[in-house]
Amino acid sequence: METPEHTPVERPAGSIPEAGWLGRWIDRGGLVFATGIVLSVLILMNEVILRYVFNAPTIWAHETVIFLCGIAFVYGGLYCCAQDRHIRVVLIYDAIPRRIKRIFDTIISIICAAASAMFAWAAWLMVQRAAFRPDGTFRLERTGSAWDPVYPGLLKVFLLIVLTVMAVQFIILAWNYARGRK
C-alpha cells in the first residue's frame, strides 16, 4: 500500500538501514546494557533483603547500581542514534516531502557528528584527568568510598568511547542520507 509523501511510515524495530554495519552492531549491543538494568534491579532487591531482613547491608550495591545504570544511559544515546529514535521536532519535519527530509537528515547528521566529536573531545579532557596521574602513569579515578571502586574513571572512559562511536555513526548516516542509500 502506498502512503502519501508526507505520511509517517511505521518501521520495524532495530537500527535503520542508513546506519549500516555499525548501526547493526550498536543495536545488538543494546541487549548487553538492557541486561545491566535488569542486573541492577536484582542487586537492589538483594540489598533491600540483606539490609532490612538480615540487617547486613553491603558496601558495594549502591555504587554498582549507579555504574550499571550510568553506562546503560550513556549507551542509550548511541542506541537511539542508530535507530533514528532521537528527539526531533516533528511539526515541520513530518509536513515536508521525503526528498526534502533526506536533505534535512543529511544536514542534521553532519551537525550531530560535529557536536558528538566536540563532546568526545571534552570527554577526552575528562579522561586525561580521570585516568592519568600528573606524571603520566595510568590510574583510574575512584569513588573515595569505603569500597572505593574505579567506576568514575571507567564511566568517563566509556563516555569517550561512546561519543567517538556516535560521531562515526552520524558520519555514516550523513553519507548514506546524502547518497540516498539504504
Please sum up the structure shown.
This protein is mainly alpha-helical and 182 residues long. The protein contains 5 helices and no strands.
Task: Characterize the structure shown.
- With 182 residues, this protein is mostly helical.
- Helix content is 68%, strand content 0%.
- It contains five helices and no strands.
- Helix 2 runs parallel beside helix 5.
- The longest helix has 34 residues.
- The model has no long low-confidence stretch (mean pLDDT 91).
Which term fits the overall shape? globular
**In percent, how helical is the residue content?**
55-70%
Order of helices and strands: HHHHH
Number of strands: 0
β content, as a range?
under 5%
Number of distinct helices? 5
Cα Rg: 21 Å
The whole-number mean of residue pLDDT values reads: 91
* Euclidean distance between termini CA atoms: 20 Å
SSE-based structural type: mainly alpha
Low-confidence stretches: none
Keywords: Cell inner membrane, Cell membrane, Membrane, Transmembrane, Transmembrane helix, Transport
Family: Belongs to the TRAP transporter small permease family.
GO molecular function, one term: transmembrane transporter activity
Membrane topology: Multi-pass membrane protein
